[in-house]
């Protein structure tokens, strides 16, 4: 009856529209164009006949009128077409359109109502279409473990955020690695109306570890089975997604499908689009039991409250135990067990239209799920080949995926107007700090950068390193942007120890870096290099923020604070570890100085020893670093003494001193007010001195700066007077802060600056 009533209503509305709209339109356009036998302008802005500015209708006005007439005719043609479709469906509309290619597989799904826009609802008296409220929170659960899966989650979340109009609550079942990465990412992403909760996947291992699993997802591929037990008891329903999912529509449309569940339906699933469960892929292929083609668990709608009442936990455990007696292990992780349960209890499942899970693995029937781009809802890269899967339209799907992969995540920080959002302390503090700045200040942009929160993705690539047990391990710390990427391989060849790098990249550049790293044998052979992506935002290069990010995420007791365009001498890693013991760095506040040199040659025969370096200095192949342009920066190192030194020697701090040092990991951070070029290292060394660090030069250590084109920031410093004025202002403010913080001892920095 609901379908008949809706159909009659649409038929009546369309009929009246077709009959009266043309008549009203033509009366308005022509009869309404005359008043007392005289033409009347259709626009109130046009002059009237009694106006001195009045002229006869122009050619442009006549053309405009013709365009409007054609538009009305097009609208009428579309309405007639809609009317004919309604007549063709007749009273059988409620059965769904079986002529659609994907409706043949939908079972309990109603493709026509879904495609008509189930979110919009229907206020007709014939029946209320269930709708998702404007500010209703949509709950999404994702199981994520490891470094690579964390990258996949970001792309999935981007696609959801791009289309969403509702608040989102992500429930992330994550291991320790994924939690660290994603917690930092979402904390720095600061997307409004998005809440994140984490659940410890490692604590859940005991729940499923008894199930042998051959699938590449490992033990984490079984954890969707225990969501009823893991997620909060007051959470009634949730959408569960694999990490290799891409959304092409608003997730609220999928959330609204919950309203279609009837009776004991508690699982919303799409039919499997491969022949796996039919058991005919190869000779002696024996899959787990399934209903027909089985169901794919890449997208699941779970009615948690009903599942708990049905004792889901016991249901799936008993089924798994029974089947494992003959099957011995799962091949497709949780999917095998879900299907075995459904085979015994088919009433549990509500079959979703297959466009809610277009499965792009080899030899599937995914092409039957869509006839046009507009049919696509969710794309599932469920083949181990991922983007290299075979599909007639794989190029289109790949481009759609890459769009979100490289999409600027900062643009997704959109407010949901009209929806109250939970108070975010970090966001409130940021707004308070920014509100205290004077926007008329000529140095406003410099000051603002200090408080800018940059989206940060830690450990972008796989990282695996255990520090040496003797507590002497040293991590090389540096930062870079895309134009210094070529230095990575050379540094890895010179430094065999752990490295922590902060890379300042856009989303698109991050993917270029990923392809570069994955194509490099040198980089892929090193698992002790932590790559931390800090995403671009603002007009300045946040050099000290990058250094702080790299410093914060080291696992060794000591760190070598370097720059990306320096190559350390061969063997420096082992030399520094010995120096740490020799100079008792663990119990003293020392900063060990590695003397810095430079070459102007792009091709350099790197010196293998101090003697060879001294020879190259004498021949003019090498120079002390910045000797020609900024002598003060490294003069206190006392290179003349270093030439003959055989033991470490102490030097005193002087104005503008900025050596490269080895320190304990608990040393102070760099000051974020300094961005771009100028004083970023000088201020840090000054603070080390204020905290009474002893500067000690290592007699047999050295590093060499390799030539490169000038950075954009140094170009701005040299050409922009206001840039230099603001840097001077920031220096003075920093020195004043030092005096307030460290008292009388810090007065020497003001004196030294005035004398320099």
TrEMBL record:
Transmembrane segments annotated in the record for this chain: 12-31
Alphabetically ordered keywords of this record: Glycoprotein, Glycosyltransferase, Golgi apparatus, Membrane, Multifunctional enzyme, Signal-anchor, Transferase, Transmembrane, Transmembrane helix
Location (main, coarse): Golgi
Gene3D superfamilies: Spore Coat Polysaccharide Biosynthesis Protein SpsA, Chain A
GO BP annotations listed: protein O-linked glycosylation via mannose
Recorded superkingdom: Eukaryota
Catalytic reaction list: 3-O-{(1->[3)-alpha-D-Xyl-(1->3)-beta-D-GlcA-(1->](n)-4)-beta-D-Xyl-(1->4)-Rib-ol-P-Rib-ol-P-3-beta-D-GalNAc-(1->3)-beta-D-GlcNAc-(1->4)-O-6-P-alpha-D-Man}-L-Thr-[protein] + UDP-alpha-D-glucuronate = 3-O-{beta-D-GlcA-(1->[3)-alpha-D-Xyl-(1->3)-beta-D-GlcA-(1->](n)-4)-beta-D-Xyl-(1->4)-Rib-ol-P-Rib-ol-P-3-beta-D-GalNAc-(1->3)-beta-D-GlcNAc-(1->4)-O-6-P-alpha-D-Man}-L-Thr-[protein] + UDP + H(+); 3-O-{beta-D-GlcA-(1->[3)-alpha-D-Xyl-(1->3)-beta-D-GlcA-(1->](n)-4)-beta-D-Xyl-(1->4)-Rib-ol-P-Rib-ol-P-3-beta-D-GalNAc-(1->3)-beta-D-GlcNAc-(1->4)-O-6-P-alpha-D-Man}-L-Thr-[protein] + UDP-alpha-D-xylose = 3-O-{(1->[3)-alpha-D-Xyl-(1->3)-beta-D-GlcA-(1->](n+1)-4)-beta-D-Xyl-(1->4)-Rib-ol-P-Rib-ol-P-3-beta-D-GalNAc-(1->3)-beta-D-GlcNAc-(1->4)-O-6-P-alpha-D-Man}-L-Thr-[protein] + UDP + H(+); 3-O-[beta-D-GlcA-(1->3)-beta-D-Xyl-(1->4)-Rib-ol-P-Rib-ol-P-3-beta-D-GalNAc-(1->3)-beta-D-GlcNAc-(1->4)-(O-6-P-alpha-D-Man)]-Thr-[protein] + UDP-alpha-D-xylose = 3-O-[alpha-D-Xyl-(1->3)-beta-D-GlcA-(1->4)-beta-D-Xyl-(1->4)-Rib-ol-P-Rib-ol-P-3-beta-D-GalNAc-(1->3)-beta-D-GlcNAc-(1->4)-(O-6-P-alpha-D-Man)]-Thr-[protein] + UDP + H(+)
Coiled coil segments of this chain: none
One GO CC annotation: Golgi membrane
Entry's localization field: Golgi apparatus membrane
Protein topology in the membrane: Single-pass type II membrane protein
Residue numbers spanned by region Disordered: 42-62, 83-110
Pathway(s) this gene product operates in, as recorded in its UniProt entry: Protein modification; protein glycosylation
InterPro entries, alphabetized: Glyco_trans_8, Nucleotide-diphossugar_trans, Xyl/GlcA_transferase
GO molecular function: glucuronosyltransferase activity; xylosyltransferase activity
PANTHER family registered for this protein in UniProt: GLYCOSYLTRANSFERASE-RELATED, XYLOSYL- AND GLUCURONYLTRANSFERASE LARGE1
UniProt similarity note: In the N-terminal section; belongs to the glycosyltransferase 8 family. In the C-terminal section; belongs to the glycosyltransferase 49 family.
Protein name: LARG1 glucuronyltransferase
């Amino acid at each position: 009856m609901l379908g008949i009533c809706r159909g009659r209503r649409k038929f009546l509305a369309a009929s009246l529209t077709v009959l009266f709209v043309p008549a009203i339109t033509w009366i308005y356009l022509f009869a309404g164009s005359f008043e007392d036998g005289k033409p009347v302008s259709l626009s109130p802005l046009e002059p009237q006949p009694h106006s001195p500015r009045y002229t006869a209708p122009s050619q442009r006005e006549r053309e405009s009128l013709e365009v409007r007439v054609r538009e009305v005719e097009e609208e009428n043609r579309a309405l007639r077409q809609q009317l004919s479709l309604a007549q063709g469906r007749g009273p059988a509309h409620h059965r769904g359109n079986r002529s659609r290619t994907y409706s043949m597989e939908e079972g309990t799904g109603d493709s026509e109502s879904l495609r008509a826009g189930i979110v919009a609802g229907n206020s007709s008296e014939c029946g209320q279409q269930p709708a998702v409220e404007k500010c209703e929170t949509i709950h999404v659960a994702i199981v994520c473990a490891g470094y690579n899966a964390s990258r996949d989650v970001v792309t999935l979340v981007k696609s959801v955020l791009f289309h969403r109009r509702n608040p989102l609550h992500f429930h992330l079942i994550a291991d320790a690695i994924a939690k660290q990465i994603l917690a930092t990412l979402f904390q720095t992403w600061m997307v409004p109306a998005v809440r994140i909760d984490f659940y410890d996947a490692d604590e859940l291992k005991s729940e499923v570890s008894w199930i042998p699993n051959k699938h590449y997802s490992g033990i984490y591929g079984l954890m969707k089975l225990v969501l009823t037990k893991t997620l909060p008891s007051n959470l009634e329903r949730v959408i569960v997604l694999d990490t290799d999912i891409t959304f092409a529509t608003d997730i609220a449309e999928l959330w609204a499908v919950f309203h279609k569940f009837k009776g004991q339906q508690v699982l919303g699933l799409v039919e499997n689009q491969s022949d796996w469960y039919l058991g005919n892929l190869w000779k002696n292929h024996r899959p787990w039991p399934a209903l027909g083609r089985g169901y794919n668990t890449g997208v699941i709608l779970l009615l948690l409250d009903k599942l708990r009442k049905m004792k889901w936990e016991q249901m799936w455990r008993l089924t798994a135990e029974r089947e494992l007696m003959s099957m011995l292990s799962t091949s497709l992780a949780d999917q095998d067990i879900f299907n075995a349960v459904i085979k015994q209890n088919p009433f549990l499942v509500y079959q979703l239209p297959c466009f809610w899970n277009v499965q792009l693995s080899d030899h599937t029937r995914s092409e039957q799920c869509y006839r046009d781009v507009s049919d696509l809802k969710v794309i599932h890269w469920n083949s181990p080949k991922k983007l290299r899967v075979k599909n007639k339209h794989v190029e289109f799907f790949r481009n759609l995926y890459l769009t979100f992969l490289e999409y600027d995540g900062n643009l997704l920080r959109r407010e949901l107007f009209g929806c109250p959002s939970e108070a975010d302390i970090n966001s409130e503090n940021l707004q308070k700090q920014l509100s205290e700045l004077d926007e008329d200040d000529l140095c406003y942009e410099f000051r603002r950068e200090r408080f800018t929160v940059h989206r940060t993705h830690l450990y972008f690539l796989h990282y695996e390193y255990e520090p040496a047990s003797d507590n002497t391990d040293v991590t090389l710390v540096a930062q870079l942007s895309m134009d210094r990427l070529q230095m990575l391989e050379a540094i890895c060849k010179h430094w065999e120890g752990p490295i922590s790098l902060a890379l300042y990249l856009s989303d698109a550049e991050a993917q270029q870096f990923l392809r570069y790293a994955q194509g490099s044998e040198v980089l892929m052979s090193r698992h002790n290099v932590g790559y931390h992506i800090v995403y671009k935002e603002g007009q300045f290069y946040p050099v000290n923020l990058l250094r702080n990010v790299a410093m914060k995420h080291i696992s060794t007791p000591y760190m070598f604070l370097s720059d990306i365009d320096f190559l350390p001498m061969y063997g420096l890693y082992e030399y520094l570890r010995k120096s740490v013991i020799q100079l008792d760095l663990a119990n003293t506040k020392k900063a060990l100085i590695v003397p810095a040199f430079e070459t102007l040659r792009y091709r350099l025969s790197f010196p293998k020893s101090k003697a060879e370096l001294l020879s190259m200095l004498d021949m003019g192949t090498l120079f002390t670093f910045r000797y020609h342009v900024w002598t003060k920066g490294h003069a206190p190192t006392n290179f003349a003494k270093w030439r003959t030194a055989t033991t470490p020697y102490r030097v005193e701090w002087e104005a503008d001193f900025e050596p490269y040092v080895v320190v304990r990991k608990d040393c102070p951070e760099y000051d974020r007010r300094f961005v771009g070029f100028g004083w970023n290292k000088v201020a840090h060394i000054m603070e080390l001195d204020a905290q009474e660090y002893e500067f000690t030069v290592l007699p047999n250590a050295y590093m060499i700066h390799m030539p490169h084109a000038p950075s954009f920031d140094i170009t701005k410093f040299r050409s922009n007077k206001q840039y230099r004025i603001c840097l001077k202002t920031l220096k003075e403010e920093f020195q004043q802060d030092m005096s307030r913080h460290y008292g009388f001892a810090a007065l020497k920095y003001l004196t030294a600056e005035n004398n320099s």
